[in-house]
């Protein structure tokens, strides 16, 4: 049978009918909100490259999280900017480090808010790379104990989950072994498994002050042309003990996200990164696109491609729209 017997438009006639037959639905439960905490600040500071986003002093953790909790966002992902950096990122593992203090403050104010921490050295090293250096090369194996130490310090401060983003080989296994050895076998790991060397991280590097002092990260982050390699990375991370795997960025790699979703049974996260966010905000402020519809379409596309969890700077806005019924 074909037209005129078959008329797909019949199911698109009204908002109620479109909602009834919609295949992909967003929920505040889908979102993880990234937050930046800066040890040098005493008041919040707007991030110029990311309109609507701020760096927060750790003492403002309650203020940073209260709107998210009110909107129904259940999880946050923390990044830290320390007051001092060195060659091995030692400030990232201090019990009184900026992330560790933010974790304690969040858990005191909102015990049920799920706190995930980014585990990496780039924000804490004076050279801006994600691991220890051997000359101009990142030394993979010598970096692993440092990452494990940082993850353990986050969990001891109260973090619910750790998320290694460094792309060192073997880091999931190193974190799993270190956490298990200290009695934290129940703490899950969300691995940045397929993290690409992307131009879309630009605004984040301003926000986190993590631009490398020399070179780039293409020797450890993935080549944008590779998809089969992403499946291999995911398989390795799962074999080492990852509980959740991630594709980052989201929008240029929706095909990879779909392949990962089809290949694994565990939850899959996608990171709707800073460049994707800032392009929407800039275009909307210029009047070139409809901000609300674009955000909804982007987030729906990420979920439709297979993401169970969406890390996004749009999390607060999206959750508010969903709670108000504006996206029904």
Outline the secondary-structure elements.
Blueprint: H1 15-21, E1 31-38, E2 45-46, E3 54-56, H2 61-71, E4 75-81, H3 98-109, E5 114-119, E6 133-134, E7 137-138, H4 140-157, E8 161-164, H5 171-181, E9 190-195, H6 202-208, H7 228-240, E10 244-248, H8 254-263, E11 268-272, H9 274-285, H10 291-304, E12 309-312, H11 315-323
Parallel strand pairs: 1-3, 1-4, 1-12, 4-5, 5-8, 9-10, 10-11, 11-12
Antiparallel strand pairs: 2-3, 6-7
Helix pairs in contact: 4-5, 5-7, 7-8
Could you please describe the fold and organization of this structure?
Strands 1, 2, 3, 4, 5, 8, 9, 10, 11 and 12 form a ten-stranded mixed sheet that branches. The model has no long low-confidence stretch (mean pLDDT 96). The chain is of the alpha/beta class and 328 residues long. It has helices at residues 15-21, 61-71, 98-109, 140-157, 171-181, 202-208, 228-240, 254-263, 274-285, 291-304, 315-323, and strands at residues 31-38, 45-46, 54-56, 75-81, 114-119, 133-134, 137-138, 161-164, 190-195, 244-248, 268-272, 309-312. It has eleven helices and twelve strands. It is 38% helix and 16% strand. Strand 6 and strand 7 form a beta hairpin. It has a single domain (23-323), classed as TIM Barrel (Alpha-Beta Barrel), CATH 3.20.20.70. It starts with 14 loop residues before the first helix and ends in a 5-residue tail after the last helix. The longest helix is centred in the middle third of the chain and has 18 residues, at 140-157.
């Amino acid at each position: 049978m074909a037209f005129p017997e078959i008329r797909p438009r019949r199911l698109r006639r009204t908002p109620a009918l479109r909602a009834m037959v919609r295949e992909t639905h967003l929920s505040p439960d889908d979102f993880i909100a990234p937050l930046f905490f800066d040890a040098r600040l005493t008041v919040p500071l707007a991030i110029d490259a990311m309109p609507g986003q701020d760096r927060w002093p750790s003492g403002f953790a309650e203020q940073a999280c209260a709107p998210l909790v009110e909107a129904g966002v259940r999880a946050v992902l923390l990044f830290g900017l320390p007051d001092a950096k060195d060659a091995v990122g030692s400030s990232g593992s201090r019990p009184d480090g900026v992330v560790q203090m933010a974790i304690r403050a969040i858990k005191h104010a909102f015990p049920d808010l799920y706190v995930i921490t980014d585990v990496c050295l780039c924000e804490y090293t004076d050279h801006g790379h994600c691991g220890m250096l051997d000359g101009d090369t990142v030394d993979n194996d010598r970096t692993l104990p440092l990452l494990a130490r940082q993850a353990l310090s986050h969990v001891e401060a109260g973090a619910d989950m750790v998320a290694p983003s460094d792309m060192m080989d073997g880091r999931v296994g190193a974190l799993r072994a270190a956490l298990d050895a200290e009695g934290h076998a129940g703490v899950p790991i969300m691995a940045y498994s397929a993290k690409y060397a992307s131009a879309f991280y630009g605004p984040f590097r301003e926000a986190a002050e993590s631009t490398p002092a020399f070179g780039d990260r293409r020797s450890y982050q993935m080549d944008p042309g590779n998809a089969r390699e992403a499946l291999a990375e995911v398989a390795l991370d799962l074999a080492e003990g990852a509980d959740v795997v991630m594709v980052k960025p989201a929008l240029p790699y929706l095909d990879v996200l779909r392949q990962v979703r089809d290949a694994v049974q565990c939850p899959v996260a996608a990171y709707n990164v800073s460049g994707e966010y800032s392009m929407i905000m800039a275009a909307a402020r210029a009047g070139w696109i409809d901000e609300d519809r674009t955000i909804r379409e982007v987030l729906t596309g990420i979920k439709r491609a297979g993401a169970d969890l969406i890390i996004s700077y749009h999390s607060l806005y999206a959750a508010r729209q969903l709670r108000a019924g504006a996206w029904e």
